[in-house]
UniProtKB/TrEMBL annotation:
Source organism, top-level taxon: Bacteria
Sequence segments annotated as region (Disordered): 160-181
Pfam families in UniProt: NA-iREase1 (PF22722), NACHT (PF05729), NNH5 (PF22736), Pentapeptide (PF00805)
Name listed for the protein in its UniProt record: NACHT domain protein
SUPFAM superfamilies, sorted: P-loop containing nucleoside triphosphate hydrolases (SSF52540), Pentapeptide repeat-like (SSF141571), Quinoprotein alcohol dehydrogenase-like (SSF50998)
InterPro entries assigned: 5peptide_repeat, NA-iREase1_dom, NACHT_NTPase, NNH, P-loop_NTPase, Quinoprotein_ADH-like_sf, WD40/YVTN_repeat-like_dom_sf
NACHT domain sequence ranges: 357-485
Amino acid sequence: MAEIVTSAFSLLGKAAAAPIKDAALRRPQVIATLKKLRLDPKQPPRDFHSLYAYTLVESLYGRPDSLLRVFKDEYIQQSFYRSFADDDWSRLEREISVAVERNRETGEFGHLPYDLMGEVSTFISDFHRLVSRSRMAYETRLENKINNVSEMLDQVLKTRHEEEEHRQAEDPERADSSPAERLKDDARDWFLAVGYRVRKEWRTEHSGVALLVEIPQRRRGKFDVIVALCVDGELAPYHLETLQVLIDEEEAAEGWGIAQLRVSQAARRKANQSNGDIYCYSFDELIDLEADFEPYIDWLEQEVRDRHIDTRFVPLSCRKEEIDPRTEKAFETSAYEWRDGGLDNYVDAWLADPAKKHLSILGEFGMGKSWFALHLAGRLAAGWKDAKTRGVARPRIPLVIPLRDYAKQTSVAALLSEFFFHKHRIEIRNYDVFRILNQMGRFLLIFDGFDEMASRTDRNTMVSNFWELAKVVEPGAKVLLSSRTEYFPEAKEARDLFGARVTSAATAVPSEGPTFEIVELVPFDDEQIRLMLGHLLTPEKLEVAMENEGVRDLMRRPVMSELVIDALPEIERGAVINLARIYLYAIKRKMDRDVSSERTFTSRADKLFFLCEVAWEMIRTNQLSLNYKEFPERLRSCFGPAVQNSKDLDYWEQDMRNQSMLVRNSRGDYGPSHKSLLEFLIAFRFAAELGLLEGDFLRLIPGAEKTDGESYSWSRYFASRSEDLRLPNLSGFEAEDAERLAENFGSAEYNPVVFDFLATMIKESSDYQEILIRHIRSTASLADPRSLGGNCANLLAQAGGSLAGADLSGADLKGLGYTGDSHVDISLEGANLSGADLNRANIAYLNKRRANFREARLRGSGLLQSRVSAQQVVAHDNGAITAHLSAQRGKRPWMREDHRALHWPSGDIRQEPVVVHLTPDSAGLWTEMCGVFNWTDDTWGYSDVRGSVIVSSATGEVIKQITEICIDSIRWGDERAFLVTDGSKGELHWKIVDHNSKKLASVRDDFPDLGKGIRVRGMVATSQGVNMWASSESETWIYEMTSETDGFREVMRLPVGTSHAVEGVPPMDLMADDENVYLRDTESRCVVSSRRAAGDALEEMSSAHFVSLSPDNRYLVVGGATKLAVWEIESEGWRKLWARPLSSAVSTPPAIMADGSQMMIALDSGEFAVWKVRDGQRLAVITFNPHLDGACFSRNGDLEECEQESIALSGGVFDA
């Protein structure tokens, strides 16, 4: 509701409480009220909301409160707005009738006037009279119209043609057909989908194609026979003459002339004169006979208006990471600024491109994903209606499908059936009609909220949900999918999932899944914030908000706009500003406003308790709505004796439905305006249950912190009412008992938004760290603590606390470290964890120095995972060794910092290396292409954002330097050369730079035409040049480029592709079919061995992380999560030479010396070792792990011998 309308109702409510009996005194009071609203009594305003407020005062001043309630109702206001904009007042009449019926059941308006419709008619007349007085009446009527519809429809026609060309490219038979034959094929598919029978088809004169079709009558088993004539181009009168002949020949009941797009006026006139024998249709009009989408389009436009998206939407900016197909990592970012069209222009271009992938929009909570989905749908809906009216090509129908509804269904097909047949009652015969229209490109499927498909966000569920959605992504479909960014642990996981490259154990993956390009929303800048608030605030208040830096930071998320407005009084008083406090201030003001402006039977505390309980149930069950019929039972479960009386229950129900910040839809379902409201309320509840709700957050409970009050637990307080049902005085909340905490907070899955809110709240308590540690310790005595200990530890980390030195002996820390896209960063230094259960925790990367782990359960805890490890290892021809070392960065384990190149000239890693510090970019990010590389016997190279450098192996002196980033070194003719990326040309373009002259030796962008379904899998430097691997599902091509070739030439073709990859190993490295095993060698060619000869080695490789062949192709090194093995490859049979257990997974492909005698292995535990290839002797080992120095362990624990060795190497101590 606009601020001026809210203010008008507030003033009118006071007038209703003290009505004026003398009519002569009314006019001065009306004028005074208009002036209080800053409205000119002599001149009505220009905009709709001010005009509505003006009419309220003129027409309803001093009228009964019940009449005010009617016009205050949100749905009545929205229907009034729509009726005025479309000049169709029947909509308002229908909504009034619904409201009257609802009032009979709920009594929410009170006693209504006998002639309510007469009162409404008078109000409409007054409104029209004021519109006529306004100088901008015409502009007022048109303010909600969408501009540039004609431009959109012109693009639709162009896109239709391009989509048809794309279909022909995909289907050679369609390409060979005439336009009339293609239309006939579409018509036949449509007829079959809607239950018609096609008896026969034949060619006619004028290049037409006819179909004899049986259409079911209402009587079972009876059919009408019609002739459908499909023509090329425009349907003209002479086609109808042909059609009449065909009707007579086939003795058909009637004839249908069908054109793809255009029907001439003369043809329509001739059909109208045929006495019902002949009808003319474009293909869109043919679809209209059996599929009525108009009511859904009307609903969609109304929804856009109801949410004020049509008047308040601010364009969004977005960015897109450009991915290098060689490494499948991001190397550039494209920015689409809102001033230049931003996300709107990007999506328009995507919609217009028939060959583009589907689109996923990612953004943090509150960034505007759902608003954009409806904004886009509203634009398309307006274009669709206009196109239908004008008889031109229509844009895709936008189907906005909230995925939060998926939790109520068993499949996406069931979700869509619910969408069509129940939620919107779209009149289509069956689900097959949807499938055919989807394949024909008639829909844009907008799946909103991928993160809301399930209440649990484990990886298997996420992957299964994607493949469930993939079932409706058919050729011809366009799909836009939105999701919270934080749903994905890292950007690569989102790329892998939306690229259809991952599966779960429970998911059968189709041979070719849908692929999505990904764009990410960018936070609002100051100008966008000003535009957004300008829709809602007066100029004076706008400046107050914009001058507050804290407010501007919060307003980077569009969802915060109305909350910030509610919190403005506190902001003006200089109150502390953060995300949680804005919700706090807004909720308090909203509830206080309800209490002051309307009669209420429940306190703010009651409403808050009810909302918190409902929020927890909604999130816990992933059912984000509550139907009005469920309110009584929910109230009884929350308030018990207070609502036993049916009259009291009615009063409480009315309050909770109308004054609880829940929003109602047309079906009577109540839910939050945004999911983040639920997340705030859950955090509030958890803080109280933990005994950590203090300060301003506690004072949200009226009368809290009273000196004569007692401490209560959350559950006991709201059950402790007096005989008159009043709540007792409250000094503060004490913690629930450990069992109840385990049931509630202990069962909560980590939600970053909830935990962010919660961390802000608990920091109001000076002893939050001690209280959380006490809760963790309590898990030692619980039979089933669930994740109570882990959640408390994660919360402590998020609040900036520490577990250093804490006594956690015997505690159960299940869930510690399982925090979605961020890694817990909390110190365990010196903590007593003796006997603790950590086998379902993740303590990787944490500081564990001097911690006591005696008798602790550590299996699967990530104990040995090191923050510092080798990311790349190079074995030089002269025996030297170079490693690229990096440290995990803060809370993001996939982001690395503190990069170093370590070089051992002698090859003895036990000696001090030459150390070079590598430089990330200015934002602290590391370009994945940077690293170390081989050069000559006495030199080696490294690259970072400064460029690429060749240094002396003996002294570290810089020998050569270029400004480009070197991917690898290659031999180019007789010389060494740098292989570098060519950022000016984008993906798959490379420069080869001569190392002496530093000038360009070659640019290669003449890549072979790979064809449909074939992707580049990698490009690798070899001793003579560059090799490229490309593969389809069933074949692989290897191309070679040297100084002597004219670009890339094919050197090998393999009868295996991505479907033959061994899970866990890159397809380039290992593939297998029923006959052979295919391995990539050091020259990036392929070694083929029979599957029979490989024997048991293939099974062992299926669990590997990396496989590497020695330079002579004699030995195969297999490195996995727990084991290192070497096989000798012989034609008669592979032979396992040795296998050794590992303390952790191999972190980078093994580096093997040129003579095949030794290899270097780096592990995630920070170990770095040199091994003999032939017999498995470990010649030297060091560790980079800094986390375990002085930590104590028991030898009789659950650690393997190799793990104990790694701990000891890192400075850990074992009991004797």
